[in-house]
Design goal:
Elements lengths: L1 H8 L31 E14 L5 E14 L4 E13 L8 E4 L2 E8 L8 E10 L13 E10 L4 E11 L3 E3 L2 E3 L2 E13 L2 E12 L6 E2 L1 E12 L4 E13 L6 E9 L157 E3 L3 E4 L17 H13 L3 E9 L6 H21 L7 E5 L12 H7 L1 E9 L26 E7 L6 E4 L2 E2 L6 E6 L2 E9 L4 E9 L4 E6 L14
Length: 645
């Protein structure tokens, strides 16, 4: 028995075709190991090849190996394979007969290494060859062991692998060429043309280390291969290659075919996705580049309720805007005017401005033009406006006499007026006249004030206006400020007499601090002596009647329902002053102690023209508490004899 093992150890395996175990699962290349997938369970296969070797004298020897292949996957990392080869030898001459001889049994394991990346996989394949082959024909009969390292990637349609390994065997000479331990390498690149069908190329090489009279055996065969995954777990691979590095019995021409079966790779709907990975194993994937990896057909990819077979844009949803909605394609610019529908005010009519037409060319688009067929002014809604007051002639009661453009648009009728309501004020075009140096209103002021009162009574949503008195720079500053305040108070009193609630008006005296014109001319000084009406607060118009105020309420923080507070006010040098609370005069004069006042924030004014007192402060009075204030001597000065205008 010992001598038999020694004899077989001297035998050599000259066959360069070594089918991979990966082919059993329909992955890798015909001779390249691929650690990409290790399925659990049984897999079977048959490998066949035909190799031609041209030897000395031009005689062609033909060898046809056939392998029975069985494998078992234990888990996703480990599997074991057994390959049983037989060889059909064609004679080198017409007189020799065919011969069928065994080859060495090959037992190997595939160990898929753990790794964090799903893009590239690594594996080790230990191999053991049993001495069952025919040594006389150079087909083994020796114990061999080897190890192959493999790396591969199938993350995209373009896939690749690379193997490098070493097999140990005793040295032998066949036909003058040295055989024995050898290094091997395999590289493959293939492309998945469609689900289940691939085409690729492979190069398998072998370099024996032993040396014979003619040298060391070397071989390199490059092949083109095709693979098709068939229904019911079958896979078919065919290849054909040319040996561009051949010595000894290395082939110069080689073809092969492999038919494998893996129940785990069964594909009953024939869509190229095995049932184990197919969410719809009985319904073939429609392969339209939309979610093709799940194995389920999508009849309406974009979800626009138009079936893909009738959808001109199956992966882009129809925008359903009433324009060509039946073709399944979104129409981003229905009217083709260069303005996207999302920004187009007239998406179905081509236009020039914001996607809309302008028939009369007045730069006002037709949908905003009240006179779309007549050239007009952009400020008058696209209509003619002879007097330029932004009121169209068709609505202008005074088409040849301009009104005021500052007037609120909804109140304009195109005619000029003495008093009108602007956005933030009530404007007057004539002065409110007072008696010289006094706060006494002249009768000529009544028509103007009556119109102001009418506006305030009509616009009860205006809850607070500032009645601002202004003076020119004549006379002392303190006197001007006092007189401007007194005149503002006089206007408030007049409007109260017209029915306007006192709490809606805040009198303020600015003196000469806010001139409108120069103080160097009579005309300029006259323009600076004025009363203005500024809107401080305006709310949404209430449909109900405004309640009548019995006390001027605080503008912020008032709590009429809470307990009232009180105010104590003292003046320096034992002076006295008239008191205004939130613009309303009170009977009590300062100084006083604990005057009852509603809680909240209040404007307190102390005024005495004789002593030049014009003191103002916003005082917050907490409910149920007393607040003290003091008018310092710096705010009290004698009034000069020079009168103000």
């Amino acid at each position: 028995m010992l001598w038999w093992w020694i004899a077989t150890a001297l035998a050599a395996n000259v066959d360069s075709f070594q089918p991979s175990s990966a082919a059993l699962q329909g992955v890798g290349s015909p001779q390249g190991e691929d650690p990409q997938r290790a399925e659990q369970g049984l897999a079977l296969g048959v490998h066949g090849a035909l190799s031609r070797n041209t030897v000395e004298g031009g005689v062609a020897r033909v060898r046809a190996p056939a392998y029975l292949h069985g494998g078992w996957g234990f888990n996703e990392q480990w599997r074991i394979d057994l390959l049983v080869p037989t060889y059909t030898l064609l004679p080198p001459s017409q007189d020799d007969a065919f011969r069928v001889v065994p080859g060495d049994l090959r037992l190997q394991a595939v160990w898929r290494l753990d790794q964090s990346s799903d893009q590239i996989q690594f594996g080790l394949i230990p191999q053991l060859y049993a001495p069952t082959g025919n040594a006389d024909e150079g087909l083994g009969g020796a114990i061999q062991g080897g190890l192959v390292a493999a790396v591969s990637s199938d993350a995209s349609a373009l896939k690749w692998l690379f193997n490098v390994g070493f097999r140990g065997a005793s040295e032998n000479t066949v036909g003058g060429w040295g055989y024995g331990s050898h290094a091997l390498g395999t590289g493959a690149l293939w492309y998945e043309l469609s689900e289940g069908f691939s085409v690729g190329t492979e190069t398998a090489t072998r370099w024996d280390l032993a040396s014979g009279p003619k040298g060391s055996h070397q071989s390199a065969v490059s092949s083109l291969f095709f693979r098709s995954l068939l229904p019911e777990g079958l896979a078919l691979t065919v290849s054909g290659g040319y040996g561009w590095l051949a010595s000894g019995q290395a082939p110069d021409l080689q073809i092969s075919s492999q038919l494998t079966f893996s129940p785990q790779s069964k594909d009953q709907d024939g869509d190229g996705i095995i049932d184990a990975e197919d969410a719809c194993p009985e319904s073939p994937e429609d392969m339209d580049d939309f979610r093709d990896e799940d194995g389920c057909p999508e009849f309406d990819n974009d979800g626009d309720m138009i079936l893909d077979e009738m959808d001109g844009c199956p992966n882009e949803p129809e925008d359903v805007d009433g324009f060509e909605d039946s073709d399944g394609c979104p129409d981003v610019d229905n009217d083709n005017d260069g303005v996207l529908d999302t920004d187009d005010l007239c998406p179905d009519i081509p236009g020039v401005d914001r996607g809309c037409p302008d028939r009369d060319g007045d730069t006002v688009i037709d949908i905003e033009d009240e006179c779309p067929d007549v050239f007009g002014s952009p400020d008058a809604y696209g209509c003619p406006d002879r007097d330029g007051d932004q009121v169209p002639d068709k609505d202008d009661k005074c088409p040849d006499e301009p009104g005021y453009t500052e007037e609120r648009r909804e109140r304009r009728d195109g005619c000029p007026r003495t008093v009108f309501l602007a956005e933030a004020s009530i404007e007057i075009t004539e002065r409110i006249e007072f008696k010289l140096g006094s706060d006494e209103l002249l009768p000529i002021a009544s028509p103007i004030l009556d119109q102001i009162g009418d506006i305030l009574l009509e616009m009860d949503d205006i809850t607070l206006i500032e009645v601002a008195g202004h003076a020119d720079a004549s006379g002392r500053t303190e006197r001007n400020e006092e007189l401007s305040l007194l005149r503002a108070i006089a206007v408030v009193e007049y409007l109260v007499g017209q029915g306007v609630a006192r709490a809606r008006m805040l009198p303020t005296g600015y003196g000469a601090r806010v001139p409108r014109s120069t103080n160097r001319t009579d005309e300029g000084r006259q323009g600076n002596r004025r009363v203005e009406f500024l809107i401080l607060e305006q709310t949404a118009k209430d449909s109900g009647d405004a309640p009548e105020a019995t006390w001027p309420q605080a503008r912020t923080g008032a709590d009429p329902e809470g307990a009232p507070g009180s105010l104590t006010l003292r003046l320096a040098a034992e002076r006295w002053a008239d008191i205004y609370i939130d613009g309303a005069p009170i009977v009590q004069k300062a100084p006083f102690v604990e005057l009852t006042i509603p809680g909240g924030a209040h404007e307190i004014r102390a005024i005495n023209g004789t002593w030049g007192i014009n003191w103002r402060e916003i005082v917050v009075v907490p409910n149920g508490q007393n607040v003290e204030r003091f008018v310092p001597s710096e705010a009290i000065e004698p009034v000069p004899s020079t009168p103000a205008q």
